[in-house]
Write a structure and sequence with these properties.
Radius of gyration: 30 Å
Structural class: mainly alpha
Helix content: 40-55%
Shape: globular
Number of strands: 3
Strand content: under 5%
């Protein structure tokens, strides 16, 4: 850097106001965040130029008049604005923003029932942030770097002498160096490897069932396995329970989840009691059982096929079903009663209102009269009195429950 360039670091620029237009507030700390691992301020996290552009799009969608910092543009919208050819290309940059604590993500349901992500866009840096927060700090660091370069003088920097290693042990018979002992695997590493192998087998089963995308290349498999073992090891080292880690892996449903997503799910589930985790497990198995039964009912022409265009939509239907079952179990309904209600309704994912109504009917609870809400009855003649008053006379019979508990856990009559 020349002396002229050094003077420019202290120069005061005059800003001339030109054509004005709507704009979004982008904080300096996001713009100055390290964009590559070669950056002098790199501390293990980066925000690629594309990630900063994604942050700009998110900030552009924030409605400041609402008084909060949330927005919910779709990945397709973000990709279209920035010129990405695939909406999946946005994911890695959203992960970078999440890792840098520039945004928070949480699932949401749109008014039309579609699943989406709500983004909380942070203007202030996170607590303990050690990076550059304004352009003045940026020029100060540059000035310090140049001063260090000038103080070294001309020529190559001197090499640091490496301390000689101790003489290796030799074999007394052959005189050759003895082979180094293999590193001993710690208890945490062994447990993490066991859990990783167990989840890897489950992920393969999910892939065979069409619930998980397969890993195509060897590079993808190696990267996913490395991420998986690292996430499990770090969680165990932090003191998290093994069952909680397995639950988080099932909730995320990926071969090798990203660090930010895994830690966020751990934080959400770590305060759950063993009873809550048992309910989650029972609801998961119950949803899987009904999903398998629904496939049979569709093949027998007793149910319509699931109207889901993408795997993401199919997963959303399944998660809604699991939530309905868990809510019913938590309310005290017997699992066999829930199975019968699902069969009577005959839907892949019944609404909460429909499942609640059918469960109350099967339990012998009188449903409220239609006139109690102030609404006029649908029928104006006596046709509504024909047949069963419960409205299930023409419905297909509910599928027979298996011998054991329908949700795959200990039988309700075992006690």
């Amino acid at each position: 850097m020349t002396s002229h360039e050094m003077d420019e670091l202290d120069e005061q620029f005059e800003v001339v106001v030109g054509r004005k237009a709507p704009f979004s507030m982008i904080p300096d700390w996001v713009t100055l965040y390290p964009g590559s691992k070669s950056h002098p301020m790199y501390r293990g996290k980066i925000l690629a130029p594309q990630a900063k552009a994604v942050y700009n799009v998110l900030a552009m969608h924030v409605n400041v008049a609402s008084g909060d910092s949330s927005c919910w543009p779709s990945r397709k919208t973000i990709a279209r604005i920035l010129g990405f050819s695939r909406e999946q290309s946005v994911d890695q940059y959203l992960d970078q923003l999440d890792d840098a604590d520039a945004i928070d993500r949480e699932p949401m349901t749109r008014p039309n029932g579609a699943k989406g992500i709500r983004y909380l866009v942070h203007q202030m840096p996170p607590a303990g942030f050690e990076g550059e927060t304004n352009v003045g700090e940026h020029y100060k660091h540059r000035r310090e770097e140049e001063a260090q370069k000038l103080s070294r003088g001309p020529g190559r920097p001197r090499k640091v002498k490496v301390q000689e290693a101790a003489e290796p042990d030799t074999d007394t018979k052959s005189g050759q160096p003895a082979p180094a002992a293999p590193p001993q695997e710690t208890a945490v590493e062994a447990a993490a490897r066991t859990v990783a192998e167990e989840w890897w087998a489950q992920a393969q089963d999910l892939t065979d069932q069409g619930h998980l995308h397969p890993l195509v290349t060897e590079q993808q498999r190696e990267r996913a396995r490395t991420n998986l073992v690292t996430r499990i090891h770090d969680a165990m080292a932090a003191g998290h329970d093994v069952e909680l880690i397995k639950l988080v892996l099932r909730e995320i449903g990926e071969w090798g989840p990203a660090k930010a997503k895994f830690e966020r799910m751990l934080k959400r589930l770590k305060d759950k009691t063993p009873e809550d985790i048992a309910l989650d497990k029972q609801a998961q198995k119950g949803a899987t059982k009904w999903w398998e039964e629904a496939e049979k009912l569709v093949a027998a022409k007793r149910m319509g096929p699931l109207m889901a265009d993408t795997e993401r939509q199919r997963t959303g239907y399944f998660l809604n079903l699991r939530t309905r079952i868990r809510t019913a179990l938590a309310a005290g309904y017997d699992s066999r009663l829930i199975w019968q209600a699902l069969g009577n309704i005959g839907d892949w994912t019944p609404t909460k209102w429909a499942l609640d109504k059918e469960l109350r009917r099967l339990s012998g609870v009188r449903a409220p009269r239609s006139g109690s809400s102030g609404r006029a009855p649908i029928f104006t003649n006596d046709q509504w009195m024909q047949g069963d008053s419960g409205g299930t006379q023409s419905a297909a019979p509910a599928p027979a429950a298996p011998d054991l508990d329908v949700f795959g856990v200990e039988s309700d009559d075992a006690a």
